[in-house]
Amino acid sequence: MKVDELTGTSSNIREIVNDASARDVLALAHHCGAKDWIPATSGNFSVRIDSRRAAITASGGDKAKLAADGIIIADIDGPAHARASAEAPLHLALYRLSPEIGAVAHVHSMAATLASLQFQNAGHVRLAGLELLKAFRGTTTYETALDVPIFDNTQDMDSLAVVVEKRLKKGPLGFGFLLAGHGLYAWGRDAADTLRHLDAFDYLFTLVLKLKGIPV
Ligand SMILES: [Zn+2]
């Protein structure tokens, strides 16, 4: 497996990325590609390497067919990588927000994008009283509610990252947020967690849309 070599400095970084982080980024990208959640080269995926770095998909390309040379290493606090996508700042903001976040996925799935528009005026999608809420880490009962925030979309992802970071610092971080008319960001402790959360979000968004009579 070959990875981007702009990275660095630490002698074991390539090995770490080859053996674990890149494999997890590939797993996320291929799963979401198979689900048809990342049409037309959209979407991006990342996995934390350590407190300072994350392996993340480079800009462009069909992530459903992602190979290791489409993965770069980004400094969580540093300047943007030359091959970073415009949406990388949102990934890195999440890693800064919580050391518990080990992987982040961004998808343009139909259910997420529809839900982001349908519930935009409310500012969130309320998922309540549903068995599959137990798919989210630490949730042990369906007798609960999860409000998934919806932020306005913008072309300026750096400033959006600042807005998201400020808002999420104010309350429970949850497991994801929506960008209106755009898609979903979801995260977890690791790639497996994040995959499970993505699947749960898709099911639950589809369910609340269908309850409103909206075909998905
Ligand atoms: Zn996007």
Number of domains: 1
| Fourth-tier CATH superfamily name | Class II aldolase/adducin N-terminal domain
C-alpha Rg (nearest Å): 17 Å
Q: Count of helices?
A: 5
Main sheet: strands, sense, barrel: 8 strands, mixed
Instruction: Output the CATH topology.
Output: L-fuculose-1-phosphate Aldolase
Strand content: 15-25%
* Model regions low in confidence, pLDDT < 50 over at least 5 residues: 1-13
SSE ordering: HEEEHEHEEHEEH
Helix content: 25-40%
State mean pLDDT (0 to 100 scale).
89
User: What gross morphology would you assign?
Assistant: globular
What does the model show?
35% of the residues lie in helices and 19% in strands. With 216 residues, it is α+β, with helices and mostly antiparallel strands. The protein has an 8-stranded mixed sheet with strand order 3-2-1-4-8-7-6-5, sandwiched between helices. Helix 1 (13-34) packs parallel to helix 5 (191-211), helix 2 packs parallel to helix 4 and helix 3 crosses helix 5 (191-211). Bound molecules: zinc ion. Residues 42, 87, 106, 108, 182-183 line the site of zinc ion.
Descriptive tags:
single chain, 216 residues, alpha+beta, L-fuculose-1-phosphate Aldolase, disordered N terminus, binds zinc ion
